[in-house]
């Protein structure tokens, strides 16, 4: 499925001008049909999969209890 620059910007939560600059820098693959750039949505699947993995890893790290510090001395 192909998206316009506007739709891609909404999908990635980025400004349209930034998506346009990424296209011109060839960091996003796009096809120019004579009127507008069309971007294949499938090229972002890996990006979103990696984001989900990172979120899951961060959740696991944040739910882990903080270990007691062995260097703390009891001052009693």
UniProtKB/TrEMBL annotation:
Residues 2-50 form the Helix-turn-helix domain. Pfam families: HTH_17. GO terms for molecular function: DNA binding. Keywords: DNA-binding. InterPro entries: HTH_17 (IPR041657), SinI_DNA-bd (IPR010093). This is Excisionase family DNA-binding protein. Transmembrane segments: none annotated. It comes from the Bacteria.
């Amino acid at each position: 499925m192909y998206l316009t620059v506007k739709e891609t910007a909404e999908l990635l939560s980025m400004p349209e001008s930034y998506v346009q600059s990424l296209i011109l820098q060839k960091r996003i693959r796009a096809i120019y049909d004579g009127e507008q750039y069309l971007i294949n949505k499938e090229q972002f699947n890996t990006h979103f999969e990696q984001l989900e993995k990172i979120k899951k890893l961060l959740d696991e790290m944040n739910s882990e209890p903080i270990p007691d510090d062995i260097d703390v001395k009891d001052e009693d």
